[in-house]
Every structure is written in C-alpha cells, then in structure tokens.
Amino acid sequence: MQVSFLFGTQRAKRVGSFRTDPANPHCVHPDDVLRVDRQVLLNGPVALYGPAERLRRHVAALESYGYRCPAFDCGEWASEADMHREVAARLEFPGYYGRNLNALNDCLGDIDIPEAGGVALVLWRFDQFARRPGVRAWDVLDVIANASWVHRLYGRRLLGLVQSDDPELHFASVGARPVMWVSWEAHKPAEPGAAPDTAG
Description:
Belongs to the barstar family. This is Barnase inhibitor. The chain is 32% helix and 15% strand. By secondary structure, the protein is an alpha/beta fold. It has a domain at 44-181: Barnase, Chain D, CATH 3.30.370.10. Helix 5 packs parallel to helix 7 (137-152). The longest helix has 16 residues, at 137-152.
C-alpha cells in the first residue's frame, strides 16, 4: 500500500484512501494508518500469526497504544470446557457464566474495554486446540468476531490474535470477514514522503 504524506495545511486532504486534518479528531493522521490494530481491522477482527516473534512485536505495539493483551496457551486446553474455564477466570466473567458459546458471546460483548486502547485476546498454539476432537474452534473465533463488532458500535476495539505453528491452518470467514495470515510488519511513524514498510 503506497501512502502519500501531505502536510502544511489545516484543511483536510486525501492521504492514500484516508483523510487527515490536525484540527479534526475524527480524521486519521497518516502515521496512525499503519498501526497494528488498524491493519488487523482492515481485514477483520481476527488475524492468524505464524512466527511467534512477529506476534510478540505486534502485542508490544498494541500495549504501547493502551491495549490490554491477555494471553492464553491454547495448547493446554484439552477440551472446550478447559477453554471456558481459563477464559472465564482470566477475563473475570461473572459467576453465572454458562460455559458455552452463547454465554461466551454475551460475556465478551460485555467486557471492559479501555477507551484509550482496546483489548486483544492473544491465543497461542491455537492449532493444537483446533485439532482436539469435538472442539468447535471456528465457532470460538466467530464469537470473538461478533463481540468485536458489538464493541465497535461504541467506538471500542476487541481483537483476536491467533498464533499457529501449523502453516496449513485455515478457517472460514468469521463475522463475514476472512481470517487472514499476517504478512506485514508493525510500522513506526514515518517521515514525510516515506513509503510504509510492508515486508512480511
């Protein structure tokens, strides 16, 4: 994606496909276009990662934006019951949490999202969980996607960052958006006129 950086005026200008105006908080500054969270959400709220180091870098970037990034080792989940148990405990779901996908959808839609950042659920070794017999791994990701859309109605961000050691892992679309492998790098604020580094 080539982005042209235009400065020197207070009126809104076109920057690639984004508008920027320093006097208008609803316009997007060109340096912010390439933030990790915006790059994820351009494709959908759930993204697949392979190399662990890239995911760690992106989590660090999100934390610098004010995100909470609770991480889960999904390889330790032998069943959906294990998933519900750990997610409920780590995200502090209420005691009446029903430990099923409908209840997960309800509670994820109600979790506290920091106004200054967001929440990114980091799911390590999700491929191991997805291979467990009887596990509805796609449904879990679909619940995250649906809850993300609910939060976005109120200007809040919920992401699902899914790490896999299996490069052949694929999922059908969730929340009517594709689950895509990440092939781009977190981008630091660019100098005027610089092109983004999108090498994966």
